[in-house]
Amino acid sequence: MCDTAVSQRKCLIYIVKSSFNSFFLLYTDAAGNYDVMNNVVIPTPGAPDPRAQNSLRQSWEMNYQEAAIYLQEGENNDKFFTHPRNANALSAYLFAHNHLFYVMELLTAVLLMLLSLSEAPAVPFLRLDVYVHASLELLALAMVAFELCMKLRWLGFHTFIRHKRTMVKACVLFIQFIEAIVVLVRQTSHLRVTRALRPIFLVDCRYCGAVRRNLRQIFQSLPPFIDILLLLLFFMVIFAILGFCLFSANTADPYFSTLENSIVSLFVLLTTANFPDVMMPAYSKNRWSCIFFIVYLSIELYFIMNLLLAVVFDTFNGVEKMKFKSLLLHKRSAIEHAFQLLVTRQVRPDGVCLKQFDGLMRFYRPRMTARDRFLTFKALNHSGATMLSLQDFYKFYEVIGLKWKARRIGEHWFDDLPRTAFLILKGLIFVTLIRFALVTEFYSLMIYLVVAINGIWILVETNMLNGKIILSNGTVGHVLQLCFYGVEVLLKITGLGPLTYFSSGWNLFDFSVTVFAFLGLIALAFDMEPFYFIVVLRPFQLLRLFKIKQRYRNVLDTMFELFPRMASLGLTLIIFYYSFAIVGMEFFADVVYPNCCNTSTVAESYRQINVTIGNQTVLKEGYYYLNNFNNILSSFVTLFELTVVNNWYITMEGVTSQTTHWSRLYFMTFYIVTMVVMTIIVAFILDAFVFRMNYSRKNREPLDDPEEVSQTEALQTLDMYKHTLGVTNLSSLQDMCVALERSGHSSLVFLGRRSRTKSDLSMKMYEEEIQVGYKQGYYRIVN
């Protein structure tokens, strides 16, 4: 029934006309005096008691709500000791777990971080008066305090103080609240390094859960990283002592004049930013001195640094696997808690019927339609029994994300169009021929050949333009190519149908690039200079060539699957940037400027002098004074340049010459921190790609396993919903029954889709290991 396809998960459900298909339904009507089981009406003896029925209904509603909360805790990886235990805690929990609260939490954290644009040292065009930004800060901090109060009411005092992240957030809030009041009273800013802790408020947001996981993995990978880092620093110190002893006698060598300079020079050499400059003074005196630098780089850069990556990759791989098992265990435990609540009051507590499942979904997914709830129930019902067993219910998180859509019944995509359009399109015999041609290998090879020729054409044409975008003879070829691509798009849309065509990511990409290329052509033809940038999108057509080879497709698929996680890793890096930028602004703002470092070895990079060339006087300018910490934006640019490490020591030495030697600790610490994050990012990419390659070799796509549901069953389900929900909210079920009646076919197919996740791949990769663990009881816990 479920298919782990490369780009999506699918579930198929067939609704088939039949009058005698056994199916379980359990419900109570408005009077509460009958049940239906296997299409048989069973009267309930005795007159109904309205108060008892109302109490029973309220009790079930509470069970549904609590079961939904357990499932949400399993999905969000919330610990079960934070589960609400009373009515007050429940109201606070519900308030703190809605999207409006999440948005308020996110906007408050973003506002606090954006205040650094207006606080001293501020971006010139965003500067605000002290009382304005201090008042905004107090307002944002008050909102954070309100959020913590709601969590305190929900968790209770003892659970609240046990939650480490919440306590850290509360302490930072207290410190920053006092500082903001002091700034507002004094009407001037003071040294506020604690502003670097503001990202804690962002990290604690619900929408930044991926960032929290990244930070957790970074800290979990630190022990082996620190071990190898200490080994690296040990060899660095040994070589620094040796270099000082060998080269300090050379007065022309500033890199080893003191032991401090030796350590700093070798630290910079580790990044290769000062190589071979650091070697040349010693090399000019003695050619054999190059052996010192060759051995140092061979050990430190090519051995220990790669060993560092290998150790971090191995640790990261183990952490990823343990995290997956932990999340899987937590979700199964949440499902077990919810299952027990859904079967507690049943006569036969061996499964969950449709009515109980529907009640659960009304709290878990309030916006889900009745039809989708019914289809989700059927998708879970692998065993074909009358109720969902616990084994069926274990698939809850895999099925709940499916988006259901009726598959086209007719042979052609235009069968459901109005009769006139249907007859016109049906009369076009070439539509069928187009569909046949689109799947042939000759068509694909022809398209790839045209794309390759287009790529060569673009290279030749661009080389002939000499940096100018002009209308030339090459534009004729451009028009012909665009006409070819346009005809291809129209043929595909006609042959496959708009819905099928645009459901493919590659087709959507081709369509977008073709449309933008036409817009670029219009911009050239009408000399619309502001839109010339669209022309550069033409080379993106060449990406279609990567579909030829399977390995290229795997690389691109991996890249697209990694994009959400890479975005979270990028945000994690930005958080580190923010903290270091705040510290840099507090200590190094307005430190560097033109002609500032005349006593430093890097003075030439900051010098501005007038030079006469012929009859003209030009300004010879060193641009490194632009790498400063005068505001948050300049700080981010400077930190990015430090991350790239090319000539980063010039910025470090310029700041050091204007402050103290201890300033080097800031830059070295930043390099080590970014090295940790970048190593984690590289390890993540390696792990994801290797994982996908192993998955592709190990697994083959399974066939669909459809299920059949009778039309009588669908009508009885509609009748049940009428008794439970009334006549409202049933349009989706009614449409399903009407479509089944009008189709004239024996079945109606529904296709469920959702994006595939790393968890789906892990379930396949570790399937045997997980099953063994289940049998041996390794993955069962009690909360």
From TrEMBL:
In alphabetical order, the GO MF annotations are: calcium channel activity; identical protein binding; intracellularly phosphatidylinositol-3,5-bisphosphate-gated monatomic cation channel activity; ligand-gated sodium channel activity; voltage-gated channel activity; voltage-gated sodium channel activity
**Keywords of this entry:** Calcium, Calcium channel, Calcium transport, Coiled coil, Endosome, Ion channel, Ion transport, Lysosome, Membrane, Repeat, Transmembrane, Transmembrane helix, Transport, Voltage-gated channel
InterPro entries named in the record: Ion_trans_dom, TPC1_animal, Volt_channel_dom_sf
Q: Which residues cross the membrane?
A: 100-118, 130-149, 170-189, 225-247, 259-279, 291-313, 417-436, 442-460, 469-491, 511-537, 558-580, 665-690
Which terms does the UniProt entry file under GO BP? endocytosis involved in viral entry into host cell
Q: Which reaction does it catalyse?
A: Na(+)(in) = Na(+)(out); Ca(2+)(in) = Ca(2+)(out)
All residue ranges annotated as the Ion transport domain in the record: 105-321, 442-690
Cross-referenced SUPFAM superfamilies? Voltage-gated potassium channels
UniProt keyword Nucleotide-binding, yes or no: no
One family from Pfam that matches here is Ion_trans
- Membrane topology, as annotated: Multi-pass membrane protein
Question: Where in the cell is the protein located?
Answer: Early endosome membrane; Lysosome membrane; Recycling endosome membrane
Which GO cellular component terms, listed alphabetically, does the Swiss-Prot or TrEMBL entry include?
Answer: early endosome membrane; endolysosome; lysosomal membrane; monoatomic ion channel complex; recycling endosome membrane
Protein family: Belongs to the calcium channel alpha-1 subunit (TC 1.A.1.11) family. Two pore calcium channel subfamily.
Q: Quaternary form?
A: Dimer. Interacts with MTOR; the interaction is required for TPCN1 ATP sensitivity. Interacts with STX7, STX8 and STX12. Interacts with JPT2. Found in a complex with LSM12, TPCN1 and TPCN2.
Q: What is the role of this chain?
A: Intracellular channel initially characterized as a non-selective Ca(2+)-permeable channel activated by NAADP (nicotinic acid adenine dinucleotide phosphate), it is also a voltage-gated highly-selective Na(+) channel activated directly by PI(3,5)P2 (phosphatidylinositol 3,5-bisphosphate) that senses pH changes and confers electrical excitability to organelles. Localizes to the early and recycling endosomes membranes where it plays a role in the uptake and processing of proteins and regulates organellar membrane excitability, membrane trafficking and pH homeostasis.
Please state what the protein is called. Voltage-dependent calcium channel protein TPC1
In its UniProt entry, the species of origin is given as Cyprinus carpio
